[in-house]
Structure formats: C-alpha cells, structure tokens
Amino acid sequence: MVRQTTTPTMSAAACDAHAFRSAMGRFPTGVSLLTQGSGETTVVITLNSLISVSLDPLLLLVSVKAAGRIRPRVAAAGSFAVNVLGSQHRPLAVEFSRADRCHGHEAMLRMGAVEGVTGNAVIPSSEMYVECELADLHEAGDHTLLVGRAVAVCTGDIEPDPLVFHQGRFATFPAAARRRAAA
Description:
Distance between the termini: 36 Å
Helix content: 10-25%
Number of strands: 12
Radius of gyration: 18 Å
Strand order of the largest sheet: 3-2-6-9-10-5-4
Strand content: 35-45%
Low-confidence stretches: none
Order of helices and strands: HEEEEEHEHHEEEEEEH
CATH architecture of the domain at 29-156: Roll
CATH topology of the domain at 29-156: Pnp Oxidase, Chain A
Number of helices: 5
C-alpha cells in the first residue's frame, strides 16, 4: 500500500503589524534580561532579540524600544549587560517584561544579581552573561539596535537548560533533545 502525503500549503497574508508579529512568533528565541546599572541605579528589561554579530571584534546586538526607559540609560552610560535566562528564570522573564517592573536594589534582589566588571547587574545563576561597552546604536523604526563590544563573558557550570520564547509562550528543550542535538 502506498501512503500518500500532502504537502502543506502556505499563503501570503497582507503584511501588517499583526501578521508580521504572528509570523515572527514562529521563530523560537532565547530569553534574556538586559541590565544597565547596579544597586540603586539598576534598570532591567526582558529581551528576546540577541544576536552574535562578530568575533573580531567581539560584538553582539540587541533591540530595545526606542521610546523605552533603558535606551537613554545605555546611551548615556555607554555600557550594558545581557543575562541569558535558564528555565528556572521564567518568573524573572515575566516580571521584567511588565511596564510596572521593579528597579534599583529591589531588582538586584529579585534577580539574585551582583555588580559586574562594567558596573552593570549580572546574574551568576544565568545560562551565561555578557558585559558590553556600547559600540554603536542604530535607530530602526520603533526600536533602537544596540551594538555592544563584549568585555566580559561568563558561562554557567551546569548543563544548559535555556528558556525559550515561541509563539507567545515560554518553553524549554527537553533534556533528551538537548543531548541528541549536542551529539
């Protein structure tokens, strides 16, 4: 008996903000917290836009709301840190995505953060963190692209268990799938 398969069809939709956001939601991303400052000056936002740009020089890129609170802070201070979250950090991802998120010492305590070498909050329990000096920024529609030059990096010493964002929900990779992917 011959088994017939059908090929799924795709149809293009009008490209408006809703359709674009829905389509981009199909692309799974990691979840991180971008921090600027530490102690009383700490500000934090949840991000899912982190890109490794270059190995020479060591550059990464993040995208933040142009009208958001963190953009002028990073521009003025010239530095930031990106903390990549593990599955155990889901509550932090949710908390720091809200408009009424905490800041200052309270944010440091909630994250279990310490001050990094650039003076920005870093989370020792994160999957990894990168501390950056601001190399460049580019206005891009309603967002600003921050290009950071990595000056310090720290990776955890436990098996990675990254937090992922996909189709509007947080997810994780099952341990068996992670081991197969690494083989």
